[in-house]
Amino acid sequence: MSEYVISVDFEIKDGMLDQALPLVIGNATNSVQNEPGCLQFDVVQDTANPNHLMLFEVYKDEAAFQSHAKASYVADFLAKARPMFVKTTMTKLTRKAHPVKK
Fold first, then answer.
1. Taking the model in full, what pTM does it have?
2. CA gap 38, 16 in Å, rounded
3. Contact 44, 28 (CB under 8 A)
4. For 35-82, what is each residue's pLDDT tens digit?
5. Where are the chain's structural domains?
6. Does domain 4-94 match CATH 3.30.70.100?
7. Which of 7, 58, 66, 99 satisfies CB 3.0 to 4.6 Å to 39 for a cystine?
8. Rounded to an integer, what distance in angstroms lies between the CA atom of residue 53 and that of residue 67?
């Protein structure tokens, strides 16, 4: 197993979470529903700081992620949401294990 994983850690500007969160969730939903190579796209929120969000995205391979990055809805999402971000950190990873319950 060597799926391509992207972890995106970012903070939303104060007062903009109600606008940004639906955009983030919409991007995740579009990715999972429209991209065969997008295997997982989780949106998680820090319980101590609600403006701190993290995305955990799993793709079949790096080519699937590159395809994702070129999708029109991703460009639309970034154009609308990026101005609401304070900072963003993206980490590229390779999944080595994904145990599941039996």
1. 0.92
2. 27
3. no
4. 999 999 999 999 999 999 999 999 999 999 999 999 999 999 999 999
5. 4-94
6. yes
7. 58
8. 23
